[in-house]
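Researcher: Please translate sequence to structure tokens.
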Amino acid sequence: METSNYRFSDKLLHHLALGIPAISKLSFDIDQLASDNKHHDYQLEKPIFISGLARAGTTILMRTLFDTGQFRSLTYRDMPFVLMPNTWQKLSKLFQTQQAAKERSHGDGIMIDFDSPEAFEEIFWQTFFKHEYIFEDCIKPHHVDQEGIEKFRLYIQYILSSARQQNKRTRYLSKNNNNILRLNSIRAAFPQALIITPFRDPIQHSMSLLKQHLNLSDQRKNDKFSADYMRYLGHYEFGVHHKPFQFKTELNANSSIDYAQDNINYWLTIWKNSHTYLLENAAKETVFLCFEDLCKQPYEVLTKVFQSDDLTWNKEEVEAIFHQPTLNTISGVDAKLQNQAQIIYEKLRKEF
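Model: Translation complete:
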């Protein structure tokens, strides 16, 4: 939701729940203590994890799946105590309100309300593992140990438990772009999961990242709470708290970026580094999904990806949802860098 509309009490509650790690950890423990423990041995149905660079179509894909009614995701109603979903759901019923859907601050036409799913799962990883992957000037991949994997499995079970009691939305759906840092740990936690990594034409994608970075930096330079809010959620993709992913791969031992953040080549380097890493390190059976192909033939692509998931699609409806964004041209692109990225893009398309 738009944080500019938050009251002082809302901001204070978010600062307490999300800005103080000790309170976040305590809320997780409270949900366990308050649980009836019946769901501890529950065998999770095949969850779906969507993860890729921001602006690759991850949100619209998640929303399309969520609208089938089969999936439980964290929503804005779970905020700010997302680590105690069952307890907070009961407490917040006392003062829940309805609000008309509004376009999110990205300015991309995606409407949100209190029941919209969002990438709040990252709060779990920040609370328990922040110092393993978030650094002063970058974000790096991290390996989650077995204890962390079991804790994450337990957390997902807690998220699902209330929906399961109502006999609806029994499958977990995640859209978390930072999960590209830990896809093998996700696979270890949920061997049966469907992991989808959308990707997009490198130039168009980089331009979208650059525009969004400039847009959100301008919006939030005088709004400290909004900037802090994005940091609480682990959204470092762009804006005033931007931190680039830093990957070291066999093909790219030095992943430093030699451009300013307002330069298209900065974002194209991030695109190249991230997708090189994914090609070399993505979890087994990760589905690489081309955004351009999805927009051109949404019904056919969705049917292929989810053919084993008992999900059906209305051709006219999905064709109205997915459409190719306006293609933009830009000068100043490093020709060598563009060629390297294009080769990676073609390799990703062959993986599908």
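Researcher: Any highlights?
Model: Residues 161 and 167 are 10 Å apart (CA to CA).
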